[in-house]
Design brief:
This protein is an alpha/beta fold. It has one domain (9-233): Aldolase class I (TIM Barrel, Alpha-Beta Barrel), CATH 3.20.20. The protein has ten helices and eight strands. The protein has an eight-stranded parallel β-barrel with strand order 1-2-3-4-5-6-7-8, surrounded by six helices. Helix 1 (19-29) links the parallel strand 1 and strand 2 (35-39). Helix 1 (19-29) packs across helix 2 and helix 6 crosses helix 7 (162-172). It is globular and about 45 Å long. The structure holds cytidine-5'-monophosphate. The site of cytidine-5'-monophosphate (C5P) has 15 residues, from strand 8.
């Protein structure tokens, strides 16, 4: 499984449906980032062969957020592991048995298995949206509840917003690998992200890996943008 970085690591999110664009970015960014994140937009459009092509440049974080019955998620994790990703995501909301099934399926791939990361509460959900799904008490409480359940059932780490990093560190110490999107270098556009932090603040709070998309992929020179962010965070 992937090692925890010394200080923190940088992950570039390649949010595109184009295999050519992803490969172009992968080639340009490879010297500056630890991992390349591919999500559903890319995977649904381009499939596993395109994931393999990106993996030739850097290890991949396959962010497919599995959420189904345990048997189905176990099968999906095995299929995903065959592509050799460094990290995979599941939804903690799938419950203890689903999280455990994902971990067990990954274990079948031995030491080279990906880290299983649990997504707790989507950062797009506020207290009102959570209440509409029957969850009272607000996002922080639900994040902590799901984080504890996921870690107790075999997750290697969690995806969380910058504002939740210290909350989770306080509750779990250094145990969980914390992978944190919503990162914006000072002065860059927030876009649709609302719970944001600078790279330095996220690392100071205890993030292990920072996920950065548009501040890199939308820059005139993505490689230079990645290098500048890496210089701030990578130890
Ligand atoms: O472009 P930007 O830096 O906002 O991209 C962040 C990446 O992290 C995107 O791929 C987004 O889907 C992902 N992400 C997120 N918030 C989460 C989970 C994933 O922004 N809670």
């Amino acid at each position: 499984m992937i090692q925890r970085p010394n200080r923190a690591g940088l992950i570039a999110a390649l949010d595109t449906d184009s295999a050519e664009r992803a490969e172009e970015l992968a080639a340009a960014l490879a010297p500056h980032v630890g991992l390349l994140k591919l999500g559903l937009e890319f995977f649904v459009a381009q499939g596993s062969a395109a994931v393999a092509r990106v993996t030739r440049h850097r290890p991949v974080f396959l962010d497919l957020k599995f959420h189904d019955i345990p048997n189905t998620v176990a099968g999906a994790v095995r299929s995903a592991c065959a592509l050799g990703p460094a990290m995979l995501t599941i939804h903690a909301g799938g419950g203890p048995a689903m999280v455990a099934a994902a971990r067990e399926a990954a274990e079948g791939f031995g030491a080279a298995r990906p880290a299983i990361l649990a997504v707790t509460v989507l950062t797009s959900m506020d207290a009102a949206a959570l209440a509409a799904t029957g969850v009272s008490g607000g996002p922080s409480q639900q994040v902590l509840r799901l984080a504890r359940m996921a870690m107790e059932n075999g997750a290697d780490g969690l995806v969380c917003s910058p504002r939740e990093v210290s909350l989770i560190r306080d509750a779990h110490g250094s145990g969980p690998l914390l992978v944190v999107p919503g990162i914006r270098p000072a002065g860059s556009a927030a876009g649709d992200q609302s719970r944001i932090a600078t790279p330095g603040d996220a690392v100071a709070a205890g993030a292990d890996w920072l996920v950065v998309g548009r501040p890199i992929t939308g820059a005139a020179e993505p490689a230079a943008a990645a290098a500048a962010i890496a210089a701030m965070v990578v130890g």
